[in-house]
């Protein structure tokens, strides 16, 4: 029986890197897809995703560049006129960093890539702390997208949309990643800066909190490292 294949939506961040490790641990051959869409830290994210593909010995690394999400705007990740907000880890509001319907765009590209390469699954690193603020990270969204994939691909195509962390916290992800020896030193999460990470945006705060909860030191460089544990 041939090895199964999985497309990993490789953002360059720690969640998708851990998803790649989980998929590889399950026996999947990795096809890693990274998309630059005009986000503030796109050069650093690309560099990180490419480094991860090398570390995981991925069968393929596909880098797609698009500009429609940045032209649409209405996100602090893509619009220079909007400021990236400081972290508010207790908020349930949709943050300014939300890119309208981004995950549907990314999953569509990943599904095309998967179908063209006879892949069996698409992995995305979304987790429970994401879906409290991002509507396209909710379990119902992934269930609905699975239906779209089932209906919209060839009859013989079977691609599973895998969001293995959808009920996990960031701390759970970091703990599993450390077990799997994920190269977190070549991951990037900061919404604001390409180096060093700011330490105060939502993405930095959730990441630092996860490592602090585990009494581990995050291996990337930060301008500041606030204490985010209670």
UniProtKB/TrEMBL annotation:
Zn(2+) binds at residues 190, 198, 201, 204. Its cofactor is Zn(2+). The keyword Metal-binding applies. ATP binds at residues 10-20. Binds 1 zinc ion per subunit. Pfam families: QueC (PF06508). The keyword Nucleotidyltransferase does not apply. Catalyzes the ATP-dependent conversion of 7-carboxy-7-deazaguanine (CDG) to 7-cyano-7-deazaguanine (preQ(0)). Belongs to the QueC family. PANTHER family: 7-CYANO-7-DEAZAGUANINE SYNTHASE (PTHR42914:SF1). This is 7-cyano-7-deazaguanine synthase. It comes from Haloarchaeobius litoreus. The lineage of its organism: Archaea, Methanobacteriati, Methanobacteriota, Stenosarchaea group, Halobacteria.
């Amino acid at each position: 029986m041939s090895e199964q294949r999985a497309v990993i939506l490789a953002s360059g961040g720690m969640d998708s890197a851990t998803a790649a490790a989980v998929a590889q641990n399950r026996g999947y051959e990795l096809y890693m897809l990274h998309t630059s869409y005009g986000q503030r830290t796109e050069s650093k994210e690309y560099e990180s995703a490419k480094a991860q593909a090398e570390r995981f010995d991925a069968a393929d690394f596909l880098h797609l560049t698009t500009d429609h999400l940045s032209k649409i705007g209405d996100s602090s990740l893509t619009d220079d006129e909007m400021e990236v907000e400081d972290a508010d880890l207790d908020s349930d509001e949709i943050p300014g960093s939300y890119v309208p319907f981004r995950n549907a765009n990314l999953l569509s590209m990943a599904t095309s890539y998967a179908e063209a390469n006879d892949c069996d699954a698409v992995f995305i690193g979304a987790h429970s702390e994401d879906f409290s603020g991002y509507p396209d990270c909710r379990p119902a969204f992934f269930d609905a997208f699975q239906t779209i994939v089932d209906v919209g691909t060839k009859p013989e195509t079977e691609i599973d949309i895998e969001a293995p962390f959808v009920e996990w916290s960031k701390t759970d992800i970091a703990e599993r990643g450390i077990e799997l020896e994920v190269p977190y030193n070549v991951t990037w999460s900061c919404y604001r800066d390409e180096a060093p990470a700011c330490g105060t945006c939502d993405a930095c705060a959730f990441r630092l909190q996860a490592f602090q909860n585990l009494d581990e030191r995050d291996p990337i460089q930060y301008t500041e490292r606030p204490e985010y544990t209670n």
